[in-house]
Specification:
Blueprint: E1 2-6, E2 11-13, E3 23-28, E4 31-35, E5 40-44, E6 49-51, E7 57-61, E8 68-73, H1 87-103, H2 112-148, E9 154-155, E10 160-161, H3 164-188, H4 192-207, H5 209-213, H6 218-247
Antiparallel strand pairs: 1-8, 2-7, 3-6, 3-8, 4-5, 4-7, 9-10
Helix pairs in contact: 2-3, 2-6, 3-4, 3-6, 4-6
Keywords: Membrane, Transmembrane, Transmembrane helix
Pfam families: DUF6069
InterPro entries: DUF6069 (IPR045713)
């Protein structure tokens, strides 16, 4: 068993003679598999496991900026060569190594990458829902405070006043949209935190335009702008931090 360290942007070729029957587990950061035809393969996060034999993987690459580490189990390095006529012994020793990895917090099984991905998405969802509740409460309290100081929240175009529960509902809806975007980036992007912040800031900037077009008075427009920014700050900080934690 050995550990391979990949600095940010580094690439290491997979040599068949050295990686025979190797099984790898990402213990830190993210690792992208480069396929035989040079095309980029899947990006594996922490605790994801993968076989190299017969997969067509020709190189491992670190798509991030932080150092990634891969724990590699290669039975051929201890008892066999790739041409050994008795490979069962090697697989048995690999199983022993994997059991040892389990004892030290490693992940084994038929689909460790899938298990790890599920755990990361579940953790992100929990963080997002807690942040959503916090954003709804903060926005509603801020709207109530604005009403208390004289903001009427009347929209002349529709002739209606925005009720307090309306702020909570709208905040909750768009917060859930933010969670979905964050989950999609965690699943498919090599840099989910950075992409999420950029996307969220862009959407927040767009959301500041409608208050100016509503025809409301200055106090209402100012209050609406603030009520757009409060939940945006809460959700962006919480989800971006969660994304960084789950991709380190």
């Amino acid at each position: 068993m050995r550990t391979l360290a990949l600095r940010g942007g580094a690439r290491v070729a997979v040599v068949a003679a050295e990686w025979c029957d190797a099984f790898g587990v990402v213990t830190r950061g993210r690792v992208q598999l480069e396929l035989r035809d040079g095309e980029p393969g899947p990006v594996l996060g922490r605790d994801a496991g993968f076989w190299l034999r017969g997969t067509g993987v020709r190189a491992l690459r670190n798509p991030g900026r932080r150092t990634a580490r891969v724990r590699i189990v290669t039975p051929g390095a201890r008892t066999l060569t790739c041409k050994s006529p008795h490979p069962y012994d090697g697989y048995r020793m690999m199983e022993d190594d994997m059991n040892s990895m389990n004892d030290h917090g490693g992940v084994a099984g038929t689909a460790p990458g899938r298990i790890s991905r599920t755990h990361r998405l579940r953790g992100l969802a929990v963080t997002g829902l807690v942040a959503t509740l916090a954003a709804m409460v903060a926005t509603t309290l801020a709207a109530a405070l604005a009403q208390a100081v004289g903001v009427d929240f009347e929209i002349p175009d529709g002739g209606e006043t925005i009720p307090l529960p309306g702020f909570a509902v709208v905040t909750g809806f768009f917060s859930v949209v933010g969670i979905v975007i964050a989950a999609a980036l965690l699943r498919w992007s090599a840099r989910p935190a950075e992409r999420f912040v950029w996307t969220a800031v862009s959407l927040t900037a767009i959301s500041l335009v409608p208050p100016f077009l509503s025809g409301a008075n200055t106090a209402t427009i100012t209050a609406l702008l603030g009520l757009h920014l409060i939940p945006a700050v809460v959700m962006v900080l919480a989800l971006a931090r969660s994304l960084r934690t789950r991709t380190d």
